[in-house]
Write a structure and sequence with these properties.
Layout: E1 7-11, H1 15-18, H2 33-44, E2 49-53, H3 61-71, E3 75-79, H4 87-90, H5 92-105, E4 111-114, H6 116-120, H7 122-128, E5 133-135, H8 140-147, H9 154-157, E6 163-167, E7 170-173, H10 185-188, E8 219-222, E9 225-226, H11 238-241, E10 247-248, H12 251-264, E11 269-272, H13 281-294, E12 299-304, H14 311-320, E13 322-330, H15 334-339, H16 347-359, E14 363-370, H17 377-390, E15 394-399, H18 407-415, H19 443-458, H20 461-471, H21 473-482
Parallel strand pairs: 1-2, 1-3, 3-4, 4-5, 8-11, 11-12, 12-13, 13-14, 14-15
Antiparallel strand pairs: 5-6, 6-7, 9-10
Helix pairs in contact: 2-8, 3-5, 12-13, 13-14, 20-21
Length: 496
């Protein structure tokens, strides 16, 4: 008879709710990297762990529940983290459906929700969802302490840090678990438990493989650090971690992750999921130097800020296998950026960084947000014009959202602004997407402009010519085909 696992970690599927038809071929299928970090912590503490990635295995909620029944774990932990902080909230669409299906079919299995969204809204989650527990905070230490209890006795539960639970029908909570400190990272989360996942199923973003668009698999993502020292008003990264909690693994520990992915699993397409990879030279630059020595032929992408990326970084990053850097540009207007606590760099600095990346053979992506609090029609148009003039190799266009855990969410609640009626409404691509209004524009106007900007950028003849020249006809034709897809929107209204 198979040994009963202490915990089954579940990544629920939300693709159908949040991507409309894009999820079939265009969007990435990313490994649940926070799930494998939690798994490594629990294994290090002596617990038996299994995992179920319902998204990667294309399972319906009912099919996923049957997998849970067959595994028969002591505890079901639903990990609601996204591949960027905002995705945790949109992934609640799938998590909520999975939990309700689970409890309807097999109420005997205790369920805990873990993730950025539930950490930001623990009481609301306990009130609205059918889960037995909610974790507030990072998760690993809370789950380990919970597994040391019988999962039922209120006195035992009251000693589990970072836990929300029910005591005789009353919702109760405990103080947060201590954060895993810098010097504890290697021991407390030693590596990523990729062996628990269907690694053959993961697929890179289409742009990540420009030039070889058919080579999107295999693919993986990993963290080299956790947390972020910055406090952009639109970001919810601090919800599970707290403020000023940037920590990183040692170079040797992180290299072991790359060795495992490149060696055992043959992965070359890798995302570094860190919110702030390009920050401390002694962390990321030393890692890049060591990766360059290994010469795995990697295709890496990572995030950076305009005001943290330096000229002396680029050659070493390129040698390590960094082929794409994603830049948080957000807006043409310095006034709009400063209002969102997003740096004081100017347009000249943005252009200089983009050109420096491309001169070094690294592709540049620009991220832009429409509808930040100080945005108006003219500033949004200026942002689009800047994006088209910068010559980035790809662009992401977003609407400002009041993600739970962000300063914008607190402001929206305080001012009584309308928020999405469903968790999928916090996605950028769902039918019911509902961004925040700005001081001068409605949510529907901002959403309509975002979709117009996306179409304008990717159908621009100058952009398509750059793609053809740099990446070839196959990639060019892929982009043309991509632009033929139009998303349906419930709330968009014209503003052009």
């Amino acid at each position: 008879m198979a040994t009963r696992p202490d915990v089954l970690l579940v990544n629920p599927s939300s693709h159908a709710q949040v991507y409309q038809g894009l999820g079939k071929n265009l969007v990435a299928i990313e490994p649940p990297v926070w799930l494998v970090l939690i798994a490594s912590h629990l294994r290090a503490k002596g617990f038996s762990v299994e995992a179920l990635d319902a998204e990667a295995e294309f399972l319906s909620p009912a099919q996923a529940v049957e997998k849970v029944r067959d595994a028969n774990p002591r505890l079901v932990a639903v990990v609601v983290y996204g591949q960027q902080p905002s995705a945790s909230t949109q992934n609640m669409a799938g998590a909520s459906l999975f939990v309700s299906t689970m409890k309807s079919a097999h109420p005997e299995f205790p369920v805990i929700l873990v993730g950025g969204h539930v950490s930001a809204l623990p009481l609301q989650t306990m009130e609205e969802e059918q889960a037995d527990f909610v974790c507030q905070g990072e998760g690993p230490r809370t789950l380990a302490a919970l597994l040391r209890t019988d999962l039922r006795d209120a006195l035992q539960l009251s000693k589990v840090p970072g836990l929300w639970y029910r005591d005789s029908g009353r919702i109760a909570s405990t103080p947060l678990a201590p954060l895993i400190l810098q010097e504890e990272m290697d021991a407390e989360m030693p590596g990523d438990a990729y062996d628990l996942l269907p690694m053959q199923n993961y697929r890179a973003h289409n742009w990540h493989c420009f030039g070889d668009i058919a080579a999107r698999q295999p693919y993986a993502s990993l963290y080299t650090s956790l947390g972020c020292p910055f406090h952009c008003s639109f970001c919810c990264i601090n919800a599970p971690f707290g403020k000023n909690t940037f920590r990183h693994w040692s170079v040797e520990s992180t290299l072991a992750k790359f060795d495992l992915l490149a060696g055992k699993f043959g992965v070359r397409n890798i995302k570094i999921s860190d919110e702030m990879f390009v920050l401390k030279d002694q962390h990321f630059l030393r890692l890049c130097e060591r990766l360059a020595e290994r010469d795995y032929g990697l295709n890496i992408w990572c995030y950076a800020r305009i005001d943290t990326l330096r000229e002396h970084h680029l050659k070493i990053m390129r040698a390590a296998g960094v082929r794409w850097v994603v830049l948080g540009i957000e807006s043409h207007s310095a006034h709009v950026r400063i209002g969102a606590d997003k740096g004081k760099f100017n347009e000249n600095a943005i252009g200089r960084v983009v050109r420096s990346l491309q001169d070094e053979g690294i592709n540049a992506m620009g991220n832009y947000i429409f509808g930040l609090p100080d945005d108006e029609q003219d500033s949004m148009k200026a942002t689009l014009e800047m994006a088209m003039g910068l010559g980035c190799d790809w662009a992401n266009f977003y609407c400002a959202m009041a993600y739970p855990g962000s300063a914008l969410h607190a402001t929206a609640i305080k001012n009584g602004w309308e928020l999405p009626s469903t968790w999928a409404g916090y996605s950028q691509h769902a039918f019911e997407t509902l961004p925040l209004p700005s001081q001068k524009l409605s949510a529907g106007e901002i959403l309509a402009f975002r979709d117009y900007a996306w179409k304008t950028y990717f159908t621009d003849p100058a952009y398509l010519e750059r793609v053809l020249r740099k990446f070839g006809k196959e990639t060019h034709d892929h982009v043309v085909e991509m632009t033929r897809y139009s998303m349906k929107r419930q709330h968009a209204v014209g503003l052009l």
